[in-house]
């Protein structure tokens, strides 16, 4: 089974994804890293040179290629991935989606580090982080809520997710 992690920037998709993949003994992929490898540019450069629309198309194309690969995996998506190009339908049709539902104050604290903001193009130009996070979460929640599973911040660790998957009868490995 494929496990796709969705949620806001700073929700821990990459960190938890690596841990879950190691726990289940399956490959881990980070969608943003895959996009960078294919484009030969960091995401901020893609945004700057080609714009968000180009990035979102590249993201959708990369997602479709990855989701069509055989075998189990854990994939950390970008925060906006489920919100564009019918990507959420692709994710739900080819694997299990898990929304990492982290409160805005926690996201704000995690993303307050200058290096984090600089590496995330939408945050780098958006002004105050907490305001941007609240507004963005407000528009993205309609997509995130369509995930098959949801994990709240306080309980979102490898053991809790493994138990949630087992309770739902989902085997990742």
Largest sheet data: 5 strands, parallel
Strand line-up across the major sheet: 2-3-1-4-5
What is the CATH T-level topology? Rossmann fold
Number of helices: 10
Strand fraction band? 5-15%
Overall, the morphology is globular
Please report the first level of CATH classification, the CATH class. Answer: Alpha Beta
Polypeptide structure, described:
The chain has a single domain (2-167), classed as Rossmann fold, CATH 3.40.50. It is 56% helix and 13% strand. The protein contains 10 helices and 5 strands; from the N terminus they run E-H-E-H-H-H-E-H-E-H-H-H-H-E-H. A 5-stranded parallel beta sheet has the order 2-3-1-4-5, sandwiched between helices. Helix 3 packs across helix 4 (52-67). It is globular. The protein starts with a strand and ends in a 6-residue tail after the last helix. The mean pLDDT is 90.
Quick synopsis:
Pathway: Metabolic intermediate biosynthesis; chorismate biosynthesis; chorismate from D-erythrose 4-phosphate and phosphoenolpyruvate: step 5/7. This protein is α/β, with parallel strands linked by helices and 173 residues long.
List keywords for this structure.
5-stranded parallel beta sheet, single chain, alpha/beta, Rossmann fold, globular, 173 residues
């Amino acid at each position: 089974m494929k496990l796709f992690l969705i949620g806001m920037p700073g929700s821990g998709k990459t960190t938890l994804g690596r841990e879950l993949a190691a726990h289940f003994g399956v490959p881990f992929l980070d969608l943003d890293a895959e996009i960078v490898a294919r484009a030969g540019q960091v995401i901020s450069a893609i945004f700057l040179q080609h714009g968000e629309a180009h990035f979102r198309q590249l993201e959708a194309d990369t997602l479709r290629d990855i989701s069509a690969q055989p075998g189990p995996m854990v994939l950390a998506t970008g925060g906006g991935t489920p919100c564009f190009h019918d990507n959420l339908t692709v994710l739900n049709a080819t694997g299990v989606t898990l929304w990492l539902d982290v409160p805005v104050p926690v996201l704000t604290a995690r993303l307050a580090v200058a290096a984090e903001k600089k590496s995330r193009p939408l945050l780098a130009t958006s002004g105050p982080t907490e305001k941007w996070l609240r507004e963005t979460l407000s528009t993205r929640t309609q997509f995130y809520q369509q995930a098959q599973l949801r994990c709240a911040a306080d309980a979102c660790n490898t053991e809790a997710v493994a138990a949630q998957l087992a309770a739902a009868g989902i085997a990742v490995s």
